[in-house]
């Protein structure tokens, strides 16, 4: 997956200038800081004041994260200089999530996935897209800033998205940082599916395999890393079951089908993209809150867009 960097060479000067201005304001203190507190208090927030950029910088610093060239983790709407009254983490900054954030007086949304329906959030990806325009207008009207937090959260150690889903599934005793393999107590594929539906709050799951197959060695790959990486993982560790977020049905699904027809024993469970990564954005609240003790940070589920009939 190509990445688009937050601090590109072209805007390094802009970022340095912003940092200089922020430091200057901090040193100046006095009336400027007092005015900031009064302004934010009027919006129902009276804690320590941070701008969007200061919070982004804090996340990168606390996570020991180096700048990622060409990252997609950029501000999608709003302003880096906006003073933050509350934070919402979510998978997708949907229209519902935006409205709920506004009701919570949270004007900074940290979303894992795109806001404007394509990987780079290119608002001209489809010319004259009326839905994009309405969403932009809504964000502007409610004065909300959205920052995508994709590449950097996956770069945390451990990967917070992976850690979040493992934690919610109750598999932390079998977790090893940096590994995608889990050795869990033996369980049938049917029981494993039931466990995942309950623990991850998923109504339906798709599988390939015999429901009575005993599963112990699991390869867990949340999100949508692509068929090549999914199949490479399956080939390298030969798991009893490969659990993925999203896949191309003509890639990994067909690989698993033929693997079984040729006598192989790897089954497949598809969680769904959002369901497989949502727990990571929920867990991120626990990661971030101690670092911003005065700030209200709330996780809002963006939910499943599909209805099963």
UniProtKB/TrEMBL annotation:
GO terms for cellular component: cytoplasm. InterPro entries: DUF34/NIF3, DUF34/NIF3_sf. Pfam families: DUF34_NIF3. Keywords: Metal-binding. A divalent metal cation binds at residues 112, 273, 277. GO terms for molecular function: metal ion binding. The keyword Metal-binding applies. The keyword Metal-binding applies. Belongs to the GTP cyclohydrolase I type 2/NIF3 family. This is Nif3-like dinuclear metal center hexameric protein. It comes from Mucilaginibacter segetis.
């Amino acid at each position: 997956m190509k990445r688009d960097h937050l601090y590109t060479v072209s805007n390094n000067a802009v970022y340095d200038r912003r940092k200089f201005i922020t430091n200057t304001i901090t040193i100046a203190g006095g009336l400027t800081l007092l005015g900031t507190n009064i302004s934010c208090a009027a919006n129902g927030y009276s804690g320590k004041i941070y701008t969007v950029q200061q919070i982004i910088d804090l996340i990168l610093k606390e996570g020991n994260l180096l700048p990622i060239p060409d990252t997609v983790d950029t501000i999608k709407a709003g302003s880096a200089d906006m003073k933050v009254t509350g934070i919402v983490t979510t998978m997708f900054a949907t229209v519902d999530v935006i409205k709920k954030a506004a009701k919570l007086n949270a004007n900074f949304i940290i979303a894992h996935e795109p806001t404007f329906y394509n990987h780079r959030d290119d608002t001209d990806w489809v010319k004259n897209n009326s839905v994009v325009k309405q969403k932009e207008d809504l964000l502007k009207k409610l004065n909300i800033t959205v920052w995508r937090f994709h590449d950097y959260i996956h770069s945390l150690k451990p990967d917070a998205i992976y850690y979040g889903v493992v934690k919610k599934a109750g598999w932390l005793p079998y977790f090893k940082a940096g590994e995608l393999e889990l050795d869990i107590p033996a369980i049938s594929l049917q029981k494993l599916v039931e466990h995942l539906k309950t623990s991850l709050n998923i109504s339906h799951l798709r599988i390939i395999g015999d429901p009575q197959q005993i599963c112990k060695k699991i390869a867990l790959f949340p999100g949508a890393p692509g068929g090549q990486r999914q199949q490479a993982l399956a080939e390298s560790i030969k798991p009893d079951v490969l659990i993925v977020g999203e896949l191309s049905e003509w890639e990994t699904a067909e690989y698993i089908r033929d693997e079984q027809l040729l006598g192989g024993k790897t089954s497949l469970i598809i969680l769904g993209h959002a369901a497989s990564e949502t727990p990571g954005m929920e867990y991120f609240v626990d990661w971030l809150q101690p670092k911003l003790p005065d700030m209200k940070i709330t996780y809002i589920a963006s939910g499943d867009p599909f209805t099963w009939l």
